[in-house]
Design brief:
Rhopdopsin 7-helix transmembrane proteins, transmembrane, membrane, single chain, mainly alpha, about 290 residues, 9 helices, transmembrane helix, elongated
Length: about 290
């Protein structure tokens, strides 16, 4: 039995390392080498967060630089950037905007949860009865929550639900606007739209797997096995590979359509009704006079 546990522990470690390095390499390639629109930087940041999620699987109680529960309380608020980055990437891709993204209001939940996590950790380390904290900060001591980490998964799930609803509404509005496009625009737009739909559905599927395998058992008090932690990472890694293959196919298809559109000869402009009937009659009369003189 111990041999099987050791095998699964090694498999989980290598899966985390393998997935983290691959996502990080893909994010670096998109960010610095792939010449594309500005909103691709959002996709690179999104993949960087997924790489962080994988690499946290390498952390345990033996190699953590600080107590592991404090470390994860500081890392978890970073995941509040995941869905905002996905939403902004889909929105900018559909609108085809190349303007740089400044600090967005969508990033505020991540900053607030990180601030609350830091306050909670400091209060627990220094004690509640020191009298050095304002009354607003000491509200944390009255929440009857043993650890801030118990509240973070619920808040993250609520935020994820909200953004998936926002993405569905975004896709629905864009689908209605596609009816007013020309055939070539609609073809390229459909390719981009299908890629974004595939990316969103993959993230939705992986989130549901994590909810039923990790989050719900955590709140019901069940012990999380190594398999429970490894399964969401395995499905996420497989989803990344499938999305990479599908994205490469869509890029190839888009390049083919753009090349075919560029090779099409430009149609001459036909000018109708430039002259009035009186001007036509005058020109006809002039031509007849020239013919008589010859």
């Amino acid at each position: 039995m111990n041999e099987f546990n050791g095998f699964f522990a090694q498999a989980y470690w290598w899966l985390s390392l393998f997935g983290g390095l691959h996502c990080l390499a893909l994010a670096i390639y998109i960010r610095y080498f792939y010449q594309a629109e500005t909103h691709q930087n959002l996709l690179a940041s999104f993949l960087s967060l997924i790489a962080l999620y994988f690499l946290t699987g390498l952390i345990n109680r033996d190699n953590a630089p600080i107590p592991i529960h404090i470390l994860f309380n500081l890392i978890s608020p970073i995941y509040f950037l995941l869905m905002p980055l996905l939403y902004l990437y889909c929105k900018n891709s559909l609108n085809q905007t190349n303007q740089p993204i400044a600090f967005s209001k969508h990033y505020w939940p991540a900053l607030l949860t990180l601030l609350f996590a830091i306050i909670d950790i400091v209060i627990k380390l220094t004690g509640y009865q020191t009298g050095k904290w304002p009354s607003v900060v000491l509200i944390f001591s009255e929440l009857n929550i043993n650890h801030w980490s118990a509240l973070l998964p619920a808040l993250l799930s609520i935020q994820t639900c909200y953004y998936f609803i926002a993405l569905w509404m975004l896709f629905h509005r864009h689908k209605q606007k596609q009816t007013n496009m020309t055939s070539s625009q609609e073809t390229l737009g459909t390719i981009r739209f299908r890629w974004l739909i595939g990316l969103t559905l993959a993230m939705l599927l992986n989130w549901l797997i994590r909810v039923f395998v990790v989050i719900l058992p955590f709140y019901f008090g069940d012990n999380l096995s190594l398999l429970s932690n490894a399964l969401p990472r395995l499905t996420l890694l497989l989803s990344i590979y499938m999305l990479a293959v599908y994205g490469l196919k869509q890029i190839t298809r888009s390049a083919y359509l753009k090349g075919r559109m560029a090779k099409q000869p430009s149609q001459p402009h036909v000018i109708h009704n430039v002259l009035t009937p009186e001007e036509y009659e005058f020109l006809h009369q002039v031509q007849q006079d020239d013919g008589d003189q010859k």
